[in-house]
Structure formats: C-alpha cells, structure tokens
Write a sequence for this structure.
C-alpha cells in the first residue's frame, strides 16, 4: 500500500510535469504558428503590391496588346528606358546650349549667325552623292550660288 501511495504521488507529480510540458509545447507551437501566419501575410502583401506595380508598369508600355509575364514586362521596360535615354542624349547633343545663345534668337537664327561669323557653311548630302541642302553662306566662300 505504501508503494501504491507513493506511486500515486509520483504519478500525480509526473502528470503535473507532463501537463506543464505539454502546455509549454502547445504554447511554443502557437507562437510559431502565429509567427508563420504573420510572415505569410507580410509576404502575400509584398507579392500583391509587386504584382500591382508590374501590372501598372505593363499598362504603361507601348504596344502591350497581349498580357505579358513579369519578366517580359521588366525586359520591355528596360528596353524602353534604354531607348529613351539614347533619344534624350541625341536630342541634347543636337540642341544648342541655351547659355550660349541669346534668348531673343531662335535656334535657326543663332545657327545662321554663327555660320556667317565663322565663315562656315552647312552642306547636306544624300548617300548617292546628291546635295540636298547648302547654306547661303557657301556663296561667299566658294563664290558659287547654290541652285534653288
């Protein structure tokens, strides 16, 4: 009987320990599950935002008649931006810098005045060798009147 009593005491002690261990494990599982759920929500929110931005970017691209996947949208965006950068650089190179030119002169007037001042001329030739444009300043330099 002593053995039974002590056994029941041990059993109740073990039951209490198992119960607290089990509660601790359940608590840890709940914490892990809550972290995982929170992380999943954050990831879903990030993916949804990314998809909205990709869709908006795709709608801004020229010639987007069909639905494009994400990598196509990004590649076409890169191509467009490169082309835009080149066009802007070419445009900037062909424009007369505004700090060189008086504000009351147009680009054409300024160009004409510069050609006259430098005793230079402008000549445009096609690939077949035909002349398509000669500036008026060529007359004084070549003593030749351009055909008009």
């Amino acid at each position: 009987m002593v053995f039974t009593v002590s056994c029941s005491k041990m059993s109740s002690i073990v039951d209490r320990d198992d119960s607290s261990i089990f509660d601790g494990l359940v608590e840890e599982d709940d914490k892990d599950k809550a972290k995982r759920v929170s992380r999943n929500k954050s990831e879903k929110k990030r993916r949804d935002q990314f998809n909205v931005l990709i869709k908006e970017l795709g709608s801004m691209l020229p010639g987007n008649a069909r639905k494009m996947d994400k990598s196509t949208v990004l590649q076409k965006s890169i191509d467009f931006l490169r082309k835009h950068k080149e066009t802007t650089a070419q445009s900037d190179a062909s424009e007369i810098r505004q700090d060189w030119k008086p504000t009351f002169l147009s680009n054409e007037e300024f160009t004409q005045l510069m050609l006259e001042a430098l005793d230079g001329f402008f000549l445009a030739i096609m690939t077949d060798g035909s002349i398509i444009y000669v500036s008026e300043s060529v007359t004084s330099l070549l003593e030749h009147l351009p055909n008009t």
The longest strand covers residues 131-134. The two ends are 132 Å apart (CA to CA). The first helix runs from residue 2 to 60. Residues 96-148 form one domain.
